[in-house]
Design brief:
The chain is mainly beta and 115 residues long. It contains no helices and 11 strands. The chain has strands at 3-7, 10-12, 18-25, 34-39, 46-51, 57-59, 67-72, 77-82, 91-99, 102-105, 109-113. Strands 2, 4, 5, 6, 9, 10 and 11 form a 7-stranded mixed beta sheet that branches. Strands 1-3-8-7 form a 4-stranded antiparallel beta sheet, with no helix packed on it. Strand 5 and strand 6 form a beta hairpin. The protein is globular. The protein starts with a strand and ends with a strand.
Length: 115
């Protein structure tokens, strides 16, 4: 069974940092790309960052230069380092893996950036 668990969210002030983790199991982690999405209240889920199996990486324009995505082939985890957080970064953050055409999501971790 594919399992995806995000953690590391919290309440921070603008300019501060958070590190999110995405721990996975139940599939061959090293053969699949990982994507991070976020969803603010009342909005659609949007892609924040993605990392492929050969370290090919993409970022949404809104987070370029502030967020860094990585993956650990041994721990089967992905990390999203978020620096210089802004109020517009507030939302629920999710990990996604697509296996055989089926999207698997974690339950999300909440990030709130507010002074």
């Amino acid at each position: 069974e594919v399992q995806i668990v995000e953690s590391g969210g919290g309440l921070v002030q603008p300019g501060e940092s958070l590190t999110l983790s995405c721990v996975t199991s139940g599939f061959d982690f090293n053969h699949y790309g990982i994507q991070w999405f976020r969803q603010a209240p009342g909005t659609q889920r949007e892609l924040v960052a993605g990392i492929g199996t050969v370290r090919n990486i993409e970022y949404a324009d809104a987070v370029k230069g502030r967020f860094t995505v990585s993956r650990d082939r041994y721990k089967h985890t992905s990390t999203l380092q978020m620096n210089n957080l802004k109020p517009e970064d507030t939302g629920e953050y999710f990990c996604k893996v697509v296996i055989a055409g089926i999207a698997h999501w974690g339950q999300g971790t909440r990030v709130t950036v507010s002074s």
